[in-house]
# Entry
Amino acid sequence: MTLPANLAREFWQEYSIFEESRRMQYVTSVERIGIEKGTRKGLLQGIDTCLQLKFGAMQSELFKEISQIQDVEQLSAILTALKTLNTVEELREIYQPITE
# Structure
Protein backbone atom coordinates (compact mmCIF):
# COMPACT_ATOMS: atom_id res chain seq x y z
CA MET A 1 0.00 0.00 0.00
CA THR A 2 1.34 3.38 -0.98
CA LEU A 3 0.18 6.64 0.54
CA PRO A 4 -0.44 9.69 -1.60
CA ALA A 5 2.56 12.07 -1.56
CA ASN A 6 0.95 14.68 0.72
CA LEU A 7 -0.09 12.04 3.31
CA ALA A 8 3.32 10.36 3.17
CA ARG A 9 5.02 13.72 3.84
CA GLU A 10 2.63 14.44 6.73
CA PHE A 11 3.21 10.97 8.20
CA TRP A 12 7.00 11.32 8.11
CA GLN A 13 6.84 14.81 9.60
CA GLU A 14 4.75 13.59 12.52
CA TYR A 15 6.94 10.52 12.89
CA SER A 16 10.09 12.69 13.01
CA ILE A 17 8.54 14.93 15.67
CA PHE A 18 7.56 11.86 17.69
CA GLU A 19 11.08 10.37 17.44
CA GLU A 20 12.70 13.67 18.41
CA SER A 21 10.47 14.01 21.47
CA ARG A 22 11.59 10.60 22.72
CA ARG A 23 15.31 11.39 22.51
CA MET A 24 17.00 12.44 25.70
CA GLN A 25 19.40 15.27 25.10
CA TYR A 26 22.81 14.87 26.68
CA VAL A 27 24.38 17.91 28.30
CA THR A 28 28.11 17.67 28.76
CA SER A 29 29.77 18.79 31.98
CA VAL A 30 31.32 21.71 30.12
CA GLU A 31 27.90 22.78 28.85
CA ARG A 32 26.44 22.37 32.33
CA ILE A 33 29.17 24.61 33.80
CA GLY A 34 28.53 27.20 31.09
CA ILE A 35 24.81 27.16 31.78
CA GLU A 36 25.43 27.57 35.51
CA LYS A 37 27.82 30.48 34.93
CA GLY A 38 25.30 32.19 32.67
CA THR A 39 22.52 31.64 35.18
CA ARG A 40 24.70 33.01 38.00
CA LYS A 41 25.61 36.08 35.94
CA GLY A 42 21.95 36.77 35.14
CA LEU A 43 20.92 36.37 38.78
CA LEU A 44 23.69 38.72 39.92
CA GLN A 45 22.58 41.33 37.39
CA GLY A 46 19.02 41.09 38.70
CA ILE A 47 20.20 41.28 42.30
CA ASP A 48 22.38 44.32 41.52
CA THR A 49 19.44 46.14 39.95
CA CYS A 50 17.13 45.33 42.88
CA LEU A 51 19.77 46.40 45.40
CA GLN A 52 20.18 49.74 43.62
CA LEU A 53 16.44 50.33 43.67
CA LYS A 54 15.95 49.21 47.26
CA PHE A 55 19.06 50.34 49.08
CA GLY A 56 20.65 53.02 46.91
CA ALA A 57 24.09 53.99 48.22
CA MET A 58 24.44 50.82 50.34
CA GLN A 59 24.05 48.68 47.23
CA SER A 60 27.76 48.54 46.43
CA GLU A 61 28.77 47.01 49.79
CA LEU A 62 25.91 44.52 49.73
CA PHE A 63 26.64 43.51 46.16
CA LYS A 64 30.31 42.83 47.00
CA GLU A 65 29.16 40.41 49.71
CA ILE A 66 26.53 38.72 47.58
CA SER A 67 28.72 38.42 44.47
CA GLN A 68 31.00 36.07 46.43
CA ILE A 69 28.20 33.48 46.59
CA GLN A 70 28.63 30.69 44.04
CA ASP A 71 25.43 28.72 44.78
CA VAL A 72 22.86 29.51 42.08
CA GLU A 73 19.96 28.36 44.27
CA GLN A 74 20.99 30.71 47.06
CA LEU A 75 21.31 33.61 44.59
CA SER A 76 17.84 32.80 43.27
CA ALA A 77 16.47 32.84 46.83
CA ILE A 78 18.08 36.25 47.41
CA LEU A 79 16.58 37.68 44.22
CA THR A 80 13.15 36.36 45.13
CA ALA A 81 13.39 37.71 48.70
CA LEU A 82 14.36 41.17 47.48
CA LYS A 83 10.78 41.61 46.31
CA THR A 84 9.42 41.62 49.85
CA LEU A 85 12.16 42.36 52.37
CA ASN A 86 12.64 45.85 53.73
CA THR A 87 15.94 45.98 55.57
CA VAL A 88 19.58 45.08 55.02
CA GLU A 89 19.38 42.85 58.09
CA GLU A 90 16.55 40.83 56.55
CA LEU A 91 18.64 40.43 53.41
CA ARG A 92 21.75 39.33 55.25
CA GLU A 93 19.77 36.70 57.18
CA ILE A 94 19.26 34.93 53.86
CA TYR A 95 22.93 34.53 52.96
CA GLN A 96 24.90 34.85 56.18
CA PRO A 97 24.72 31.94 58.60
CA ILE A 98 23.56 32.83 62.08
CA THR A 99 26.37 32.27 64.57
CA GLU A 100 25.66 31.93 68.25
In short: The mean pLDDT is 88. Helices lie at 5-22, 29-55, 59-66, 72-81, 88-95. The two ends are 80 Å apart (CA to CA). Residues 28-95 form one domain.
